[in-house]
Protein 1
Amino acid sequence: MPRRIVVVDNDPDALELVVLDLSLEGIEVVGTALEGTSALRLVAELAPDVLVVDHRMPPGPNGMDVAAEVRASHPETAVVLYSNYQSDDLLARSEALGVRFVPKGNLRTLRRAVRAS
């Protein structure tokens, strides 16, 4: 089971809900961010086991951009893309990068994805 998680979402309420849910399940959230640039800094500083990132986070890099950068610069960090937005292209890009995609709103599925990472 992953030990250290960073969670990123531009919606503070959604971010708080995910952090609370993961924490109640015994999963250690070591950092949070509200946008992509801060997420990249946190990954570099904290070296988490898993990054959970929303896709749409204007302005700045979106979740897929963050995922691609993390996979390239920190291949040991698993990435879970957690988003309301879905498209065939997004799903194909996630799969090509080795990034798990989880539809937003299903916390049980998110917990399983984090644990399996």
Note: The longest strand covers residues 78-83.
Protein 2
Amino acid sequence: MAAIERAGEKTFVYEKLHGGVGDISVQRYFEGAHPWQMDVEIWELPVGGAEGSHRHDDSEPEYGAMSELYLVIEGSGLMSLDGQSVELRPGDAALAAPGVDHDLVNTGSVPLRVLVITDPEILSR
């Protein structure tokens, strides 16, 4: 199978995701069109926007336990992982494993663009 998706074709908005600040624009690529369980997305957080502190574990009914990889493409942000915060810039990445409290905040003066790859925990692994 070969396929192309163009920027903006499958964009949606998370409004105050996980109780965060502002709306996060999301482009999800090839949803359901590949054999992997993961989602591949580009997120854009507005200036001052925040994902909202949360964790993904077996107690969460909507997402369940999953890992999230965040790779900064443009802008800068503050990533909190289990109470430790680190500034991220283009090319930096953070990994939130299942059960890790995490949050991403746009601390820059331009929208924060991030590649986000989510991978659900599969019992058969």
Note: The chain has a mean pLDDT of 88.
Protein 3
Amino acid sequence: MVKPYRNLSGDSGVVGYEIGRNFIRIRFKSKEDYRYELGRVGRKHLDAMRKLAESGKGLATYINAHPEVREGFS
């Protein structure tokens, strides 16, 4: 189930997220969902994205700053 992203900065393209055991699914303003899986982005990035999603700030910036994440969705 997708949880609302708090968007504390007020200008994020992220509107929601779902955290699973080995993935995070992110919903963007465009209504598109992107699933980032452990096997594609690695533990370091998956954990960072989970933390940012739960904190409500910095998730879209993180994705855009890391090409291996930005291009690692399925």
Note: The two ends are 18 Å apart (CA to CA).
